[in-house]
């Protein structure tokens, strides 16, 4: 069986095929990521919907009782199906980093890069890293795989090199960079932020809201997102809303407002300026706003995977605006889930909606602006035989 090869003599990878062949690696990588939406959109959408609806129906306490409920075997009880939806959605969202890592590595190195990338992505999930960290794992696994396959091994060792040593070393490199280096940097950053956040809580609450908004949408379910949510839950961890302080409930409101912005903002951007989004992104944008209503930033993950360098800054900017305005307006939320579906738990809900709207417009405008600045690659050329002649002439496709 024959294998297609690039000009460098290496097996052709998906990122090198089609119209992207011969272009800059950044353009090829961007085109490959942009094609991910049809694959990640349905998975993310269903998982986020199951997770969000379960939280709205059963409340945040379901996290502590889900195992007990499922082990009861009462499959005719609504609570059991709610727990099943929660566990299924949470598990799928947890394993989006390995999926993103494997997809990216496949684009870089072909099938040989998938296993090391998935292993690196699982390591990322083990330290509660988000999708951006999963993309780092995939990029490292794919790059290391390509480099190792270029090393000429003795004929007797080629089999074991390609089947054992290459995936082993690529897996180790992927996990090390994603967990040991990036994970350590995250831990250092969280440690450095802990004291300033406590100080900001009492002296500069608007600045705290801005910081929390930036954290919520910096890694989409990663350590910074979870740190922001944990900080907010310190003040709303009880069961009696009357015991919550105004400031603590405003902090939770800032986190909830920030979490609503990415899915709503990117959905609006894909509607207003559809030509800078792919057809798959526009299709996903028609339903992704639902996840904004329940304050799930993970609902924007397909947009993030497709174009992380533009959608992450746009999401962070809008979320920061929403978080700062919530603290300025002193709006409150007494529960750590549900978003707009828990409007009964909100104080000053109209001002909360105004803060979210400002963040959504910021994200949409910035996403459109950044995507509009993207340089459109020149059309690829193919070789075609001129009619009545043996001479091959290039034609644009």
Strand and helix layout:
Elements: H1 25-34, H2 37-58, H3 62-72, H4 78-94, H5 96-109, H6 114-126, H7 131-149, H8 158-203, H9 205-216, H10 223-233, H11 246-272, H12 279-293, H13 301-306, H14 308-329, E1 332-333, E2 346-347, H15 349-372, E3 381-385, E4 392-396
Antiparallel strand pairs: 1-2, 3-4
Helix pairs in contact: 2-4, 2-12, 3-4, 5-6, 5-7, 6-7, 6-8, 7-8, 8-9, 9-10, 9-11, 9-14, 10-11, 11-12, 11-14, 11-15, 14-15
Folded structure, characterized:
By secondary structure, the protein is mainly α. The chain folds into 2 domains: 14-187, no CATH class; 190-372, no CATH class. It is built from 15 helices and 4 strands. The chain has helices at 25-34, 37-58, 62-72, 78-94, 96-109, 114-126, 131-149, 158-203, 205-216, 223-233, 246-272, 279-293, 301-306, 308-329, 349-372; strands at 332-333, 346-347, 381-385, 392-396. The strands form 2 sheets. The protein has a two-stranded antiparallel sheet. Helix 2 runs antiparallel to helix 4 (78-94) and helix 9 crosses helix 10. Residues 1-11, 237-244, 377-383 and 390-397 have low confidence and may be disordered.
